[in-house]
Amino acid sequence: MINLTAVYVLWLREMKRYFRAKSRILGSLAIPFFFLAFLGLGFNRMPVPGVGGGVNYIRFLVPGIIGMSLLFQSIFAGLSVLWDREFGFLKEIMVAPVSRVSIVLGRIAGGMTTAIVQGFLVLGISLFVGFRITNAPGVVVAFLFMILVSTSFIGLGLIFASRIKDMQGYSIIMNFVVFPLFFLSGALFPLGNLPRWLHILSYADPLTYGVDGLRGSLISVSALGVPANLLIMAAVSFLMVVLGAWSFETSESR
Amino acid sequence: MDDIRVEELTRKFDDFTAVDRISFTVPRGELFGLLGPNGAGKTTTINMLSTLLRPTSGTAEVSGFDVSRSRDDVRKSIGVVFQEPALDSQLTGRENLEFHAMMYGMGRDERRRKVDEVLALVELGDKAPVLVQNYSGGMKRRLEIARGLIHEPRVLFLDEPTLGLDAQTRRHIWDYIRRLNEEKGVTIILTTHYMEEADYLCGRVAIMDHGTFAALDTPERLKDVLGGDVVSLEIKGGAAGLEAQFRALDWIRGMAVHDGVFSLTMERGERRIPELIAQAQKSGAAVECVNLHKPSLEDVFLHFTGKTIRESEASQAERNRAMMRAHRPRRGR
Are residues B51 and B79 in the same domain? Predict the structure, then answer.
C-alpha cells in the first residue's frame, strides 16, 4: 500500500527545489531574523512578565520564533499542492501508479524536512543575537517537537489546499488563519498576561503546545511541562495528518 | 485485441453534460484521433480514460482494465501528455524524467538507459541538465512526450500535443508521434482541433461536438462522404452545350452551375482537369479560371455539425458565458 520509492522521490523533489531556491531560503530567514534582532534586542532589558528571574526576552523569544518558522514553512508545504495544481505538475503525480497515501506521505516527509532545517537555521541565527544553548539533550527533545509541529501544520495545509481552489484563498488563509495561530500561541509573550477569554482561546491553538514544549526543552521554561506538551502535540499531529491525507485523497479523485 | 473499450461513457458537471454517452473501441496499435472544437469534451474524455476523473455513468476499459475499478492497473499501462504543461520547471529536464521513472518503479540501470534513450528520441540530450524553466514551448512539449514514453506504456494519450507550437516544431512532433506508433506499436489516442493534424496522423477520427460523436471513420472515408474533390470552372460562352456534355461523363458525380461557374464533384480532380478543359474547348467555350478544392476534415466537420470548427468554438464561448451568468450570485435582494 505504501510505496517507499514514491515517498522517497517526492521527498527528493522537495529537497532539490528547497536547496535550489537559495533566495527563498534567505527570504524565509529574514523575518525570523528581524523578529529576533528588533523585538528581541529591543525588549531585552525588560523583565518578561510572569516568568521567573534570569530569563531575558531573547531567551524567551527564540523558541517562539522557531515555532513561528515551523508554522509558516509547514503550512506553506501543505498548501504547495495549490502550486502543483496551478502549474499542472499535480496531474503528473496523480496519474502515476502509486497509492494516494504514498503521495501524501512523500509530501509530508519533504515539508517536514524543510521545516526542520528551517527551525535549526533559526536556532543557529539566534546564537548571533546572544542566545545560548545550556542544555544539550534539550535540543533532541526540541527536535521531536519540531517533527510534531511541522507534521501537524502540513496536515492543516493539506486540508486547506483541498478546500480552496485559487490564490485568493491562499492570502485569506495566511491573514486569517496563520497569523492568528502565530500571535495566539504565546510565541511573543507569556499567555498568562492575556485576558482570561483570550487565554482560554489560546489552548485551542495547537502551536501553543509546540511553543511551550520548545521553550521547555530549550530554556527549561514551560507552563504545561514537556511531557504534557509532547503528548498533546503527538495527538494533534496524528489527527491532522489523517485528516489532511483524507482531504487530499477525496478532493483529488473527483 | 482492443486497447480501449468505451461504452455509453458520460460525465456531468452539475447540470452541464461534458461527455454524453459516447461509445467506441480502439484496437491495439491504432492511432486514434478525437477531433473537435474547444469545449467539445475531448479533454474530459481523456481525463476519464486516464483515471483523473470518474465517469458519471457508462464504462471504459483501458488495456483490459476498468478505469473506475482497476485504477492502478490502468495507470501502469498508460502514458499521458496533458494539454497544459505538467512539468516541474524548477527541476532539470533529466530530473523530470528521473522523477517519472522512479514513480513508475524502474530500477537504477533501466532508468538511466531509458531516460537517455527517450532524450535522444526527442533530441534533447544536450539540454538535459538545463532547468525546465529555461526551455522553449516546443522543448517542453518534446520533454513531456519523452516522459510519456519512459515506462513503455501500451497506450499513450496525447491531449492537444501541438497546441500553440510553431509550424516547424509541429511537424517535428508529428514525426515523433508517427514513428512511435509505427515502430513501437504504441496505441495512441490523440485529441486535436487542428484538422490537418488529424488528417496527417490518425488512422481513424471521431468528430466530437457538444460531448457526442458526430461521426467516426478513417479520414479518407469521412472525406468520401462529401463525394470527392470539387473542380470549379469559370466559363465564357457556350455554357449550355457544355452542361449536357458534362452530364454525359459518368465520373462526374455532381454538378452545379451558377453565374457561368461550374462546380463539379469527382474523385482525383487534379487528373481530370485537362480532360475538362478539352471538353470545354470542344464545345467552343473558353475556360477563364480553374480551381481545385480537395475536401478537408474542415469540410467534413461542417457537413456533420452544420458549423465550421471556428463557429462552433464561438458558440461554445457564448454558452460558457451564459453559464457563468447563470451561476453568478444575484445581488440587491
Answer: yes
